[in-house]
């Protein structure tokens, strides 16, 4: 580690092929921050398995009402014991449009809008229990930390942090304030992901040895749209960073299967990235006829395909991909390979192997699915049909509220938020250092050895919150 510290520092000076001094500087700072050999986290309090006192009516506020925020408004208004009291977006029209979705309901939220720090006032309100953060992800950690400091539980969209420093801040603040900080990794609640988690827990795969996950989906159209995202923020991220900047949809579900932070943890990773063959070219093509795109034409875009491999301390491996450009079909992979069986979600159809070297027939697949579908999905599947991301949005929102109302631990804790999000800066470091390996911090400070799985997919406790249809 100390040896690498020197390498990291020296690496800042020798990074190749970088055009922008500012980007060079930020990557140099990133290397310094990552290789801080002095960093010795002492756990104030173990947030794994932490249960806050019951909250009968969860009074909530939402910050960020672009595309993702309104889907929370839609699901939360259907859940018993929720009161949406405050909505915040920089843009008044977005805040007002979100409030309009609550017409003819009992919710009558106050609006916070117009300036970039109105969200602080929302966090400062005395009468909120939960703050949901759905702004661009590089803002999440600052908002989550501030909300916890104001005594609020936090549900943050993905990823929860963009730098290692932010990931540590989340951990340290949650432990000190004893407030939940859950990253809302909804892909862990998709039907096949829940099914395979239950199968893994029941031993179907034997010892799970290797997992694969991805978020491979073309963002070309959305990123270059002038109106899709506030201030072109996604394109700016692709134009200024390297590495896997959207790891958690692929990683979260397999991290649950592998009991990461609960019996195992990420040890180190390596990350390899192709060159950018598409975003830069598209930016230059658009800039030739439209001056709006001029500032994007000279950016040093993240490569088409990022491939990272993570090794765990128990000797397991995870292959993770991110491809935001190519016109191939949406692909999450979600592959699980064990000593007795295997499963893979993408490419479709989803497949299961009983260890006999063939994928099970559809009839057999259905029998296995019926046997292993966990209770949480059985209960929610009918109701979740019209909810986003294969129904996972309603399931995760409902279970978050149900756990808060019953005073139960949440399915994903602050250590998951930190570890899964840390892949963003760590892959960036690896990519910009000739794909060298880099250690993943132990955000649990050793508690991973005794922490127990807490994603209650069989609803052993709680589960009594109703959906209002
Ligand atoms: N889990 C999922 O399936 C999923 C899906 C989509 C997006 N996301 C995540 O949700 C987040 C939001 O994405 P999006 O697609 O809604 O982006 P968006 O650009 O549509 O919305 C972001 C909103 O944040 C607002 N905002 C910016 N600065 C603000 C500030 N200082 N105070 C208050 N509001 C501010 C903007 O006005 C905008 O309306 C991202 O982090 C993204 O990664 C997750």
Give a quick summary of the entry.
Helices cover 38% and strands 16% of the residues. The protein is α/β, with parallel strands linked by helices and 469 residues long.
Structure description:
The structure is a single chain. A hairpin with a 3-residue loop joins strand 11 and strand 12. The longest helix is centred in the last third of the chain and has 18 residues, at 414-431. This protein has helices spanning 2-14, 21-34, 68-76, 92-100, 118-124, 140-149, 164-177, 191-201, 220-224, 233-240, 248-257, 279-287, 294-297, 362-372, 375-384, 392-406, 414-431; strands spanning 58-63, 82-89, 110-113, 130-133, 153-156, 181-183, 208-216, 266-273, 305-312, 317-323, 335-338, 342-344, 351-353, 438-439. It has 3 domains: 2-34; 58-185, Rossmann fold (3-Layer(aba) Sandwich); 187-377 and 416-449, Dihydrodipicolinate Reductase, domain 2, CATH 3.30.360. The chain has an 8-stranded mixed sheet with strand order 13-12-11-7-10-9-8-14. It is of the alpha/beta class. The model is unreliable at 1-19 (pLDDT under 50). The N and C termini lie far apart (55 Å). It contains 17 helices and 14 strands. Helices cover 38% and strands 16% of the residues. It binds nicotinamide-adenine-dinucleotide (NAD). Residues 63-69, 88-91, 94, 116, 119, 134-137, 157-158, 186, 229-230, 233, 389 line the site of nicotinamide-adenine-dinucleotide.
What count of helical segments does DSSP give? 17
Please state the CA-atom Rg, rounded to the nearest Å: 22 Å
CATH architectural designation of the largest domain: 2-Layer Sandwich
Overall geometry: globular
Ligands bound here?
nicotinamide-adenine-dinucleotide
Give the DSSP E fraction (strand runs of 2 or more residues).
15-25%
- The strands making up the biggest β-sheet line up spatially as 13-12-11-7-10-9-8-14
CATH topology of the largest domain: Dihydrodipicolinate Reductase, domain 2
Largest sheet: 8 strands, mixed
**N→C terminal distance:** 55 Å
Helix amount: 25-40%
Rounded average pLDDT: 92
Class based on secondary structure composition and strand pairing: alpha/beta
User: CATH homologous superfamily name of the largest domain?
Assistant: Dihydrodipicolinate Reductase, domain 2
| CATH C-level name of the largest domain | Alpha Beta
Total of domains: 3
Number of strands: 14
- pLDDT under 50 segments (min length 5)? 1-19
